[in-house]
Amino acid sequence: MPELCVGERRWVVPTGSNLLDALNDAGLHVPYSCRAGSCHACLVHCEVGQPLDAMPEALALDKHALGWRLA
Ligand code: FES
Predict the structure, then answer these.
(1) What digits encode the pLDDT tens for the residues 2-41?
(2) Which of 23, 32, 59 to mutate for ligand 1's pocket (most ligand atoms within 8 Å of CB)?
(3) In this structure, what CATH number is given to the domain that contains residue 38?
(4) What is the spatial distance between Cα 2 and Cα 32, in angstroms, rounded to a whole number?
(5) Does ligand 1 lie within 6 Å of residue 54's CB atom?
(6) Distance, CA 45 to ligand 1 centroid (Å)?
(7) CA 39 to CA 68: how far, in whole Å?
(8) How many domains does the chain have?
(9) 3-state secondary structure of 23
(10) Which of 21, 40, 44, 56 has its CA 20 to 30 A from that of 66?
């Protein structure tokens, strides 16, 4: 199962979890609005690992390549 690490926190989430929901369920208060890849309010940086991205076209290729994701 995938593991999320934010600061000192580390926890496992079920495979196929929505990243935004997993982060917010853990109390991290990631902002969001559209939940559809339009507003970019949920932009997060993934320092290690490559979470599956259901809509990679929603983010510029250069940002995607640097590890940014729309949670
Ligand atoms: S909530 Fe709008 S892009 Fe994620």
Answers:
(1) 999 999 999 999 999 999 999 999 999 999 999 999 999 9
(2) 32
(3) 3.10.20.30
(4) 22
(5) no
(6) 14
(7) 14
(8) 1
(9) helix
(10) 21
